[in-house]
Amino acid sequence: MPTRPTHERNKGLALDRSLIARLPLFKGLTAAELDEMLRGARSVRYPKQSAVFEQEAEAHSFFVLLDGHIRVVRTTPEGHQVIVRYISEGEIFGVAAALGRTTYPASAIAAVDCVALVWPNALWSELSLRFPSFGANTYKTVGSRLQETHTRVVELSTEQVEQRVAHALLRLVNQTGQKTDQGIEIDFPISRQDIAEMTGTTLHTVSRLLSAWEERGLIVSGRQKVTVKDPHALVVLAEHRDRR
Amino acid sequence: MPTRPTHERNKGLALDRSLIARLPLFKGLTAAELDEMLRGARSVRYPKQSAVFEQEAEAHSFFVLLDGHIRVVRTTPEGHQVIVRYISEGEIFGVAAALGRTTYPASAIAAVDCVALVWPNALWSELSLRFPSFGANTYKTVGSRLQETHTRVVELSTEQVEQRVAHALLRLVNQTGQKTDQGIEIDFPISRQDIAEMTGTTLHTVSRLLSAWEERGLIVSGRQKVTVKDPHALVVLAEHRDRR
Protein backbone atom coordinates (compact mmCIF):
# COMPACT_ATOMS: atom_id res chain seq x y z
CA MET A 1 0.00 0.00 0.00
CA PRO A 2 1.57 3.32 -0.99
CA THR A 3 2.07 5.84 1.80
CA ARG A 4 0.30 9.18 1.59
CA PRO A 5 1.80 12.22 -0.14
CA THR A 6 3.89 14.41 2.17
CA HIS A 7 3.36 18.15 2.06
CA GLU A 8 6.78 19.72 2.33
CA ARG A 9 5.27 23.05 3.06
CA ASN A 10 4.25 21.83 6.47
CA LYS A 11 7.86 22.17 7.45
CA GLY A 12 7.44 25.93 7.10
CA LEU A 13 10.33 26.34 4.65
CA ALA A 14 9.98 28.75 1.72
CA LEU A 15 10.55 27.11 -1.67
CA ASP A 16 13.77 28.12 -3.35
CA ARG A 17 13.60 29.58 -6.82
CA SER A 18 16.50 27.41 -7.96
CA LEU A 19 13.90 24.60 -8.10
CA ILE A 20 12.29 26.13 -11.17
CA ALA A 21 14.70 28.75 -12.54
CA ARG A 22 16.21 26.30 -15.06
CA LEU A 23 12.86 25.05 -16.45
CA PRO A 24 11.84 26.15 -19.98
CA LEU A 25 8.29 26.63 -18.65
CA PHE A 26 9.44 29.62 -16.58
CA LYS A 27 11.93 31.02 -19.07
CA GLY A 28 12.08 34.80 -19.09
CA LEU A 29 10.79 35.28 -15.55
CA THR A 30 12.92 37.43 -13.23
CA ALA A 31 14.08 36.18 -9.82
CA ALA A 32 11.35 38.22 -8.14
CA GLU A 33 8.72 36.78 -10.50
CA LEU A 34 9.90 33.21 -9.86
CA ASP A 35 9.55 33.88 -6.12
CA GLU A 36 6.05 35.16 -6.72
CA MET A 37 5.13 32.04 -8.72
CA LEU A 38 6.45 29.89 -5.88
CA ARG A 39 4.55 31.74 -3.18
CA GLY A 40 1.36 30.16 -4.54
CA ALA A 41 2.82 26.63 -4.62
CA ARG A 42 3.56 23.85 -2.22
CA SER A 43 5.95 20.96 -2.76
CA VAL A 44 4.50 17.47 -2.41
CA ARG A 45 6.12 14.02 -2.43
CA TYR A 46 4.24 11.20 -4.14
CA PRO A 47 5.50 7.69 -3.34
CA LYS A 48 5.83 5.23 -6.22
CA GLN A 49 2.40 3.95 -7.40
CA SER A 50 0.42 6.64 -5.55
CA ALA A 51 -2.10 8.78 -7.46
CA VAL A 52 -1.35 12.48 -7.91
CA PHE A 53 -4.96 12.75 -9.07
CA GLU A 54 -7.69 10.38 -10.19
CA GLN A 55 -9.70 10.32 -13.42
CA GLU A 56 -13.02 12.21 -13.12
CA ALA A 57 -12.03 13.76 -9.77
CA GLU A 58 -12.65 17.47 -9.32
CA ALA A 59 -9.67 19.39 -10.71
CA HIS A 60 -8.37 21.35 -7.73
CA SER A 61 -4.73 21.91 -8.70
CA PHE A 62 -2.16 22.09 -11.46
CA PHE A 63 1.33 20.63 -11.13
CA VAL A 64 4.96 20.91 -12.21
CA LEU A 65 6.99 17.72 -11.85
CA LEU A 66 10.32 18.44 -10.14
CA ASP A 67 11.60 14.90 -9.86
CA GLY A 68 10.46 11.49 -11.10
CA HIS A 69 8.14 10.20 -13.80
CA ILE A 70 4.35 10.27 -13.91
CA ARG A 71 2.18 7.84 -15.87
CA VAL A 72 -1.07 9.35 -17.20
CA VAL A 73 -3.67 6.62 -17.57
CA ARG A 74 -7.22 6.50 -18.92
CA THR A 75 -9.48 3.68 -17.84
CA THR A 76 -12.44 2.72 -20.04
CA PRO A 77 -15.89 1.90 -18.63
CA GLU A 78 -15.02 -1.77 -19.32
CA GLY A 79 -11.89 -1.47 -17.17
CA HIS A 80 -9.28 -1.38 -19.93
CA GLN A 81 -6.32 0.88 -19.20
CA VAL A 82 -4.54 2.99 -21.78
CA ILE A 83 -1.38 4.93 -20.96
CA VAL A 84 -2.00 8.39 -22.40
CA ARG A 85 1.58 9.57 -21.87
CA TYR A 86 4.49 9.84 -19.46
CA ILE A 87 5.32 13.17 -17.82
CA SER A 88 9.01 13.93 -17.29
CA GLU A 89 10.87 16.31 -14.98
CA GLY A 90 10.14 19.97 -15.54
CA GLU A 91 6.79 19.41 -17.29
CA ILE A 92 3.52 21.02 -16.30
CA PHE A 93 0.54 18.64 -15.99
CA GLY A 94 -3.02 18.46 -14.70
CA VAL A 95 -3.80 21.70 -16.55
CA ALA A 96 -7.58 21.19 -16.56
CA ALA A 97 -8.05 24.80 -15.43
CA ALA A 98 -6.14 26.13 -18.45
CA LEU A 99 -8.49 24.18 -20.72
CA GLY A 100 -11.75 25.16 -19.05
CA ARG A 101 -12.35 21.74 -17.50
CA THR A 102 -13.58 21.11 -13.97
CA THR A 103 -12.46 17.46 -13.70
CA TYR A 104 -9.31 15.54 -14.60
CA PRO A 105 -9.82 13.46 -17.77
CA ALA A 106 -7.29 10.79 -16.69
CA SER A 107 -5.40 9.57 -13.62
CA ALA A 108 -1.80 10.60 -12.90
CA ILE A 109 0.20 7.86 -11.16
CA ALA A 110 3.75 8.18 -9.80
CA ALA A 111 5.84 5.67 -11.82
CA VAL A 112 8.67 6.16 -9.29
CA ASP A 113 8.92 8.28 -6.12
CA CYS A 114 8.10 11.80 -7.31
CA VAL A 115 8.20 15.39 -6.13
CA ALA A 116 5.87 17.97 -7.67
CA LEU A 117 5.00 21.59 -7.13
CA VAL A 118 1.25 22.04 -6.67
CA TRP A 119 -0.71 25.24 -7.33
CA PRO A 120 -4.42 25.66 -6.56
CA ASN A 121 -6.40 26.07 -9.79
CA ALA A 122 -7.84 29.31 -8.47
CA LEU A 123 -4.41 30.85 -9.16
CA TRP A 124 -4.28 29.81 -12.83
CA SER A 125 -5.96 32.91 -14.31
CA GLU A 126 -4.03 35.29 -12.12
CA LEU A 127 -0.62 33.70 -12.76
CA SER A 128 -1.14 33.22 -16.51
CA LEU A 129 -2.26 36.83 -16.92
CA ARG A 130 0.51 38.21 -14.73
CA PHE A 131 3.21 36.10 -16.43
CA PRO A 132 2.08 35.78 -20.06
CA SER A 133 5.18 33.77 -21.03
CA PHE A 134 4.20 31.15 -18.44
CA GLY A 135 0.69 31.00 -19.97
CA ALA A 136 2.07 30.83 -23.52
CA ASN A 137 4.55 28.07 -22.58
CA THR A 138 1.76 26.06 -20.99
CA TYR A 139 -0.36 26.30 -24.14
CA LYS A 140 2.67 25.39 -26.22
CA THR A 141 2.93 22.21 -24.11
CA VAL A 142 -0.79 21.56 -24.69
CA GLY A 143 -0.22 22.04 -28.43
CA SER A 144 2.64 19.55 -28.45
CA ARG A 145 0.52 17.03 -26.57
CA LEU A 146 -2.35 17.47 -29.01
CA GLN A 147 0.01 16.77 -31.92
CA GLU A 148 1.63 13.85 -30.12
CA THR A 149 -1.83 12.39 -29.51
CA HIS A 150 -2.74 12.85 -33.18
CA THR A 151 0.47 11.05 -34.06
CA ARG A 152 -0.66 8.12 -31.92
CA VAL A 153 -4.04 8.12 -33.68
CA VAL A 154 -2.21 8.01 -37.01
CA GLU A 155 0.10 5.23 -35.80
CA LEU A 156 -2.78 3.18 -34.41
CA SER A 157 -4.72 3.71 -37.66
CA THR A 158 -2.01 2.93 -40.18
CA GLU A 159 0.81 0.96 -38.58
CA GLN A 160 1.38 -2.67 -37.78
CA VAL A 161 1.90 -3.52 -34.11
CA GLU A 162 5.66 -4.01 -34.57
CA GLN A 163 6.06 -0.44 -35.85
CA ARG A 164 3.91 0.95 -33.04
CA VAL A 165 5.96 -0.76 -30.33
CA ALA A 166 9.20 0.43 -32.00
CA HIS A 167 7.82 4.00 -32.12
CA ALA A 168 6.76 3.85 -28.46
CA LEU A 169 10.24 2.71 -27.34
CA LEU A 170 11.92 5.40 -29.46
CA ARG A 171 9.68 8.08 -27.95
CA LEU A 172 10.53 6.94 -24.41
CA VAL A 173 14.23 6.87 -25.27
CA ASN A 174 14.03 10.40 -26.67
CA GLN A 175 12.06 11.64 -23.70
CA THR A 176 13.93 9.95 -20.87
CA GLY A 177 16.90 8.00 -22.24
CA GLN A 178 20.10 7.72 -20.17
CA LYS A 179 23.35 6.53 -21.76
CA THR A 180 24.77 3.39 -20.20
CA ASP A 181 27.51 0.94 -21.22
CA GLN A 182 24.94 -1.21 -22.99
CA GLY A 183 23.10 1.53 -24.89
CA ILE A 184 20.33 4.00 -24.02
CA GLU A 185 18.25 3.00 -21.04
CA ILE A 186 14.67 4.13 -20.46
CA ASP A 187 15.07 5.94 -17.18
CA PHE A 188 12.17 4.54 -15.17
CA PRO A 189 10.58 1.17 -14.47
CA ILE A 190 8.52 0.10 -17.47
CA SER A 191 6.83 -3.26 -17.75
CA ARG A 192 5.77 -5.16 -20.85
CA GLN A 193 2.18 -4.58 -19.75
CA ASP A 194 2.88 -0.80 -19.71
CA ILE A 195 4.18 -1.02 -23.29
CA ALA A 196 1.07 -2.98 -24.29
CA GLU A 197 -1.12 -0.23 -22.76
CA MET A 198 0.79 2.40 -24.75
CA THR A 199 0.46 0.66 -28.10
CA GLY A 200 -2.98 -0.92 -28.14
CA THR A 201 -1.78 -4.48 -28.10
CA THR A 202 -1.47 -7.42 -25.72
CA LEU A 203 1.18 -8.38 -23.18
CA HIS A 204 1.73 -11.53 -25.22
CA THR A 205 2.53 -9.61 -28.42
CA VAL A 206 4.87 -7.18 -26.65
CA SER A 207 6.73 -10.11 -25.04
CA ARG A 208 7.08 -11.86 -28.39
CA LEU A 209 8.41 -8.70 -30.09
CA LEU A 210 10.85 -7.75 -27.33
CA SER A 211 12.22 -11.29 -27.20
CA ALA A 212 12.77 -11.29 -30.98
CA TRP A 213 14.48 -7.88 -30.83
CA GLU A 214 16.64 -9.01 -27.94
CA GLU A 215 17.78 -12.04 -29.94
CA ARG A 216 18.69 -9.76 -32.84
CA GLY A 217 20.73 -7.51 -30.50
CA LEU A 218 18.49 -4.43 -30.85
CA ILE A 219 17.57 -4.16 -27.17
CA VAL A 220 18.28 -5.60 -23.75
CA SER A 221 15.31 -5.98 -21.46
CA GLY A 222 14.97 -7.05 -17.88
CA ARG A 223 12.29 -6.82 -15.23
CA GLN A 224 10.69 -3.36 -15.70
CA LYS A 225 13.74 -2.24 -17.68
CA VAL A 226 14.45 -1.65 -21.36
CA THR A 227 17.77 -0.57 -22.89
CA VAL A 228 17.97 0.20 -26.60
CA LYS A 229 21.32 -1.01 -27.99
CA ASP A 230 20.70 -0.18 -31.64
CA PRO A 231 18.38 2.83 -32.00
CA HIS A 232 19.06 3.04 -35.73
CA ALA A 233 17.75 -0.47 -36.35
CA LEU A 234 14.66 0.40 -34.29
CA VAL A 235 14.08 3.53 -36.40
CA VAL A 236 14.29 1.36 -39.54
CA LEU A 237 11.70 -1.02 -38.05
CA ALA A 238 9.45 1.87 -37.06
CA GLU A 239 9.57 3.75 -40.35
CA HIS A 240 9.93 1.25 -43.16
CA ARG A 241 6.71 -0.64 -43.30
CA ASP A 242 7.66 -2.55 -46.41
CA ARG A 243 10.96 -3.78 -45.07
CA ARG A 244 9.60 -5.79 -42.18
CA MET B 1 -10.04 21.13 -60.31
CA PRO B 2 -11.42 23.27 -57.48
CA THR B 3 -11.63 26.98 -58.11
CA ARG B 4 -9.67 29.38 -55.94
CA PRO B 5 -11.02 30.84 -52.71
CA THR B 6 -12.84 34.15 -53.13
CA HIS B 7 -12.02 36.97 -50.74
CA GLU B 8 -15.27 38.65 -49.91
CA ARG B 9 -13.46 41.59 -48.47
CA ASN B 10 -12.44 42.68 -51.92
CA LYS B 11 -15.97 43.89 -52.35
CA GLY B 12 -15.25 46.54 -49.76
CA LEU B 13 -18.20 45.61 -47.55
CA ALA B 14 -17.81 45.66 -43.77
CA LEU B 15 -18.63 42.33 -42.10
CA ASP B 16 -21.80 42.36 -40.08
CA ARG B 17 -21.63 41.35 -36.44
CA SER B 18 -24.74 39.18 -36.82
CA LEU B 19 -22.36 36.68 -38.51
CA ILE B 20 -20.74 35.87 -35.17
CA ALA B 21 -22.95 37.27 -32.40
CA ARG B 22 -24.74 33.93 -31.91
CA LEU B 23 -21.54 31.82 -31.66
CA PRO B 24 -20.54 30.43 -28.22
CA LEU B 25 -16.92 31.34 -29.08
CA PHE B 26 -17.77 35.04 -28.83
CA LYS B 27 -20.21 34.81 -25.95
CA GLY B 28 -20.06 37.77 -23.61
CA LEU B 29 -18.63 40.22 -26.14
CA THR B 30 -20.52 43.50 -26.59
CA ALA B 31 -21.68 44.71 -30.01
CA ALA B 32 -18.74 47.12 -30.15
CA GLU B 33 -16.32 44.34 -29.24
CA LEU B 34 -17.76 42.03 -31.91
CA ASP B 35 -17.25 44.82 -34.45
CA GLU B 36 -13.67 45.19 -33.28
CA MET B 37 -13.06 41.42 -33.64
CA LEU B 38 -14.47 41.60 -37.18
CA ARG B 39 -12.35 44.56 -38.20
CA GLY B 40 -9.32 42.22 -38.21
CA ALA B 41 -11.07 39.52 -40.26
CA ARG B 42 -11.95 38.87 -43.85
CA SER B 43 -14.57 36.46 -45.13
CA VAL B 44 -13.40 33.83 -47.60
CA ARG B 45 -15.28 31.24 -49.66
CA TYR B 46 -13.69 27.83 -50.09
CA PRO B 47 -15.21 25.67 -52.84
CA LYS B 48 -15.83 21.99 -52.07
CA GLN B 49 -12.57 19.99 -52.02
CA SER B 50 -10.31 23.08 -51.90
CA ALA B 51 -7.68 23.37 -49.16
CA VAL B 52 -8.14 26.06 -46.51
CA PHE B 53 -4.55 25.29 -45.51
CA GLU B 54 -2.05 22.52 -46.17
CA GLN B 55 -0.17 20.32 -43.70
CA GLU B 56 3.30 21.73 -42.86
CA ALA B 57 2.55 25.08 -44.53
CA GLU B 58 3.48 28.21 -42.63
CA ALA B 59 0.63 29.10 -40.27
CA HIS B 60 -0.44 32.58 -41.37
CA SER B 61 -4.05 32.71 -40.15
CA PHE B 62 -6.68 31.35 -37.80
CA PHE B 63 -10.26 30.71 -38.88
CA VAL B 64 -13.88 30.54 -37.76
CA LEU B 65 -16.14 28.41 -39.95
CA LEU B 66 -19.35 30.31 -40.77
CA ASP B 67 -20.89 27.81 -43.14
CA GLY B 68 -20.08 24.27 -44.28
CA HIS B 69 -17.94 21.43 -43.00
CA ILE B 70 -14.16 21.11 -42.97
CA ARG B 71 -12.26 17.82 -42.98
CA VAL B 72 -8.94 17.93 -41.09
CA VAL B 73 -6.57 15.35 -42.56
CA ARG B 74 -3.09 14.15 -41.65
CA THR B 75 -1.03 12.41 -44.31
CA THR B 76 1.77 10.07 -43.25
CA PRO B 77 5.19 10.02 -44.96
CA GLU B 78 4.02 6.78 -46.65
CA GLY B 79 0.98 8.58 -48.07
CA HIS B 80 -1.70 7.17 -45.77
CA GLN B 81 -4.43 9.63 -44.87
CA VAL B 82 -6.11 9.85 -41.48
CA ILE B 83 -9.09 12.13 -40.85
CA VAL B 84 -8.24 13.90 -37.60
CA ARG B 85 -11.70 15.44 -37.19
CA TYR B 86 -14.49 17.38 -38.86
CA ILE B 87 -15.02 21.06 -38.10
CA SER B 88 -18.62 22.28 -37.94
CA GLU B 89 -20.22 25.71 -38.24
CA GLY B 90 -19.20 28.17 -35.57
CA GLU B 91 -15.97 26.39 -34.63
CA ILE B 92 -12.54 28.00 -34.51
CA PHE B 93 -9.76 26.08 -36.30
CA GLY B 94 -6.19 26.45 -37.52
CA VAL B 95 -5.21 27.80 -34.09
CA ALA B 96 -1.50 27.09 -34.50
CA ALA B 97 -0.70 30.58 -33.19
CA ALA B 98 -2.58 29.94 -29.94
CA LEU B 99 -0.46 26.82 -29.41
CA GLY B 100 2.92 28.37 -30.21
CA ARG B 101 3.28 26.58 -33.56
CA THR B 102 4.57 28.14 -36.76
CA THR B 103 3.16 25.52 -39.17
CA TYR B 104 -0.15 23.71 -39.56
CA PRO B 105 0.10 20.10 -38.35
CA ALA B 106 -2.61 18.88 -40.78
CA SER B 107 -4.52 19.96 -43.89
CA ALA B 108 -8.00 21.50 -43.73
CA ILE B 109 -10.15 20.57 -46.73
CA ALA B 110 -13.62 21.94 -47.51
CA ALA B 111 -15.96 18.91 -47.40
CA VAL B 112 -18.67 21.06 -49.03
CA ASP B 113 -18.65 24.69 -50.22
CA CYS B 114 -17.59 26.66 -47.13
CA VAL B 115 -17.35 30.21 -45.86
CA ALA B 116 -14.88 31.10 -43.12
CA LEU B 117 -13.71 34.21 -41.35
CA VAL B 118 -9.94 34.54 -41.53
CA TRP B 119 -7.75 36.48 -39.10
CA PRO B 120 -3.99 36.99 -39.53
CA ASN B 121 -2.06 35.17 -36.79
CA ALA B 122 -0.35 38.41 -35.89
CA LEU B 123 -3.65 39.46 -34.30
CA TRP B 124 -3.96 36.39 -32.05
CA SER B 125 -2.09 37.78 -29.02
CA GLU B 126 -3.77 41.15 -29.23
CA LEU B 127 -7.30 39.79 -29.60
CA SER B 128 -6.94 37.05 -26.96
CA LEU B 129 -5.54 39.54 -24.44
CA ARG B 130 -8.13 42.18 -25.26
CA PHE B 131 -11.04 39.72 -25.15
CA PRO B 132 -10.06 37.15 -22.50
CA SER B 133 -13.34 35.23 -22.90
CA PHE B 134 -12.49 34.68 -26.58
CA GLY B 135 -9.04 33.35 -25.56
CA ALA B 136 -10.54 31.15 -22.83
CA ASN B 137 -13.20 29.76 -25.19
CA THR B 138 -10.53 28.94 -27.77
CA TYR B 139 -8.50 27.03 -25.18
CA LYS B 140 -11.64 25.27 -24.02
CA THR B 141 -12.10 24.10 -27.62
CA VAL B 142 -8.47 22.95 -27.68
CA GLY B 143 -9.07 21.07 -24.41
CA SER B 144 -12.14 19.32 -25.86
CA ARG B 145 -10.18 18.33 -28.95
CA LEU B 146 -7.34 16.95 -26.84
CA GLN B 147 -9.83 14.80 -24.91
CA GLU B 148 -11.62 13.74 -28.07
CA THR B 149 -8.27 12.70 -29.55
CA HIS B 150 -7.42 10.73 -26.39
CA THR B 151 -10.80 9.03 -26.71
CA ARG B 152 -9.85 7.96 -30.24
CA VAL B 153 -6.53 6.60 -28.95
CA VAL B 154 -8.45 4.61 -26.34
CA GLU B 155 -10.93 3.35 -28.95
CA LEU B 156 -8.18 2.37 -31.37
CA SER B 157 -6.31 0.65 -28.54
CA THR B 158 -9.13 -1.30 -26.96
CA GLU B 159 -12.05 -1.64 -29.36
CA GLN B 160 -12.90 -3.94 -32.21
CA VAL B 161 -13.38 -2.30 -35.60
CA GLU B 162 -17.19 -2.67 -35.43
CA GLN B 163 -17.32 -0.61 -32.21
CA ARG B 164 -15.00 2.03 -33.64
CA VAL B 165 -17.10 2.51 -36.76
CA ALA B 166 -20.27 2.69 -34.64
CA HIS B 167 -18.61 5.31 -32.38
CA ALA B 168 -17.48 7.34 -35.38
CA LEU B 169 -20.99 7.43 -36.87
CA LEU B 170 -22.51 8.37 -33.50
CA ARG B 171 -20.01 11.21 -33.10
CA LEU B 172 -20.86 12.57 -36.56
CA VAL B 173 -24.57 12.30 -35.82
CA ASN B 174 -24.12 14.17 -32.54
CA GLN B 175 -21.98 16.83 -34.18
CA THR B 176 -23.89 17.37 -37.41
CA GLY B 177 -27.04 15.25 -37.43
CA GLN B 178 -30.20 16.58 -39.15
CA LYS B 179 -33.55 14.93 -38.52
CA THR B 180 -35.21 13.55 -41.65
CA ASP B 181 -38.15 11.23 -42.26
CA GLN B 182 -35.83 8.23 -42.27
CA GLY B 183 -33.82 9.07 -39.15
CA ILE B 184 -30.83 11.31 -38.39
CA GLU B 185 -28.76 12.19 -41.43
CA ILE B 186 -25.09 13.13 -41.28
CA ASP B 187 -25.25 16.60 -42.73
CA PHE B 188 -22.43 16.50 -45.27
CA PRO B 189 -21.12 14.14 -47.94
CA ILE B 190 -19.23 11.31 -46.29
CA SER B 191 -17.83 8.35 -48.21
CA ARG B 192 -17.02 4.87 -46.95
CA GLN B 193 -13.37 5.71 -47.57
CA ASP B 194 -13.75 8.75 -45.26
CA ILE B 195 -15.16 6.50 -42.53
CA ALA B 196 -12.26 4.08 -43.03
CA GLU B 197 -9.81 7.00 -42.62
CA MET B 198 -11.53 8.00 -39.38
CA THR B 199 -11.44 4.57 -37.81
CA GLY B 200 -8.14 3.01 -38.84
CA THR B 201 -9.62 0.34 -41.03
CA THR B 202 -10.10 -0.46 -44.70
CA LEU B 203 -12.76 0.54 -47.22
CA HIS B 204 -13.63 -3.15 -47.53
CA THR B 205 -14.34 -3.53 -43.82
CA VAL B 206 -16.45 -0.35 -43.65
CA SER B 207 -18.49 -1.50 -46.66
CA ARG B 208 -19.06 -4.90 -45.09
CA LEU B 209 -20.18 -3.36 -41.75
CA LEU B 210 -22.46 -0.71 -43.27
CA SER B 211 -24.12 -3.31 -45.51
CA ALA B 212 -24.77 -5.57 -42.52
CA TRP B 213 -26.18 -2.67 -40.48
CA GLU B 214 -28.35 -1.61 -43.40
CA GLU B 215 -29.78 -5.12 -43.66
CA ARG B 216 -30.57 -5.03 -39.95
CA GLY B 217 -32.36 -1.67 -40.35
CA LEU B 218 -29.88 0.35 -38.25
CA ILE B 219 -28.84 2.75 -41.00
CA VAL B 220 -29.58 3.77 -44.57
CA SER B 221 -26.59 4.64 -46.69
CA GLY B 222 -26.24 5.99 -50.19
CA ARG B 223 -23.46 7.56 -52.21
CA GLN B 224 -21.61 9.84 -49.74
CA LYS B 225 -24.61 9.77 -47.43
CA VAL B 226 -25.37 8.03 -44.15
CA THR B 227 -28.63 8.21 -42.18
CA VAL B 228 -28.88 6.55 -38.78
CA LYS B 229 -32.34 5.02 -38.32
CA ASP B 230 -31.78 3.39 -34.96
CA PRO B 231 -29.23 5.35 -32.89
CA HIS B 232 -29.99 3.27 -29.80
CA ALA B 233 -29.00 0.01 -31.52
CA LEU B 234 -25.79 1.72 -32.70
CA VAL B 235 -25.01 2.82 -29.12
CA VAL B 236 -25.49 -0.77 -27.97
CA LEU B 237 -23.07 -1.95 -30.67
CA ALA B 238 -20.56 0.76 -29.76
CA GLU B 239 -20.63 0.22 -26.00
CA HIS B 240 -21.33 -3.42 -25.30
CA ARG B 241 -18.30 -5.28 -26.47
CA ASP B 242 -19.47 -8.59 -25.09
CA ARG B 243 -22.84 -8.46 -26.76
CA ARG B 244 -21.63 -8.39 -30.35
UniProtKB/TrEMBL annotation, chains A, B:
Sequence ranges assigned to domain HTH crp-type in this UniProt record: 159-232
Record-linked Gene3D superfamilies: Jelly Rolls, Winged helix-like DNA-binding domain superfamily/Winged helix DNA-binding domain
InterPro entries reported in the protein's UniProt record: cNMP-bd_dom, cNMP-bd_dom_sf, Env_Response_Regulators, HTH_CRP, RmlC-like_jellyroll, WH-like_DNA-bd_sf, WH_DNA-bd_sf
Keywords: DNA-binding, Nitrogen fixation, Transcription, Transcription regulation
Superkingdom in the source lineage: Bacteria
Keyword hit for Signal: no
CC terms in the record's Gene Ontology section: cytosol
An example Gene Ontology molecular-function term: DNA-binding transcription factor activity
Cyclic nucleotide-binding domain sequence ranges: 25-114
Record protein name field: Cyclic nucleotide-binding protein
Species whose genome carries this gene: Mesorhizobium alhagi CCNWXJ12-2
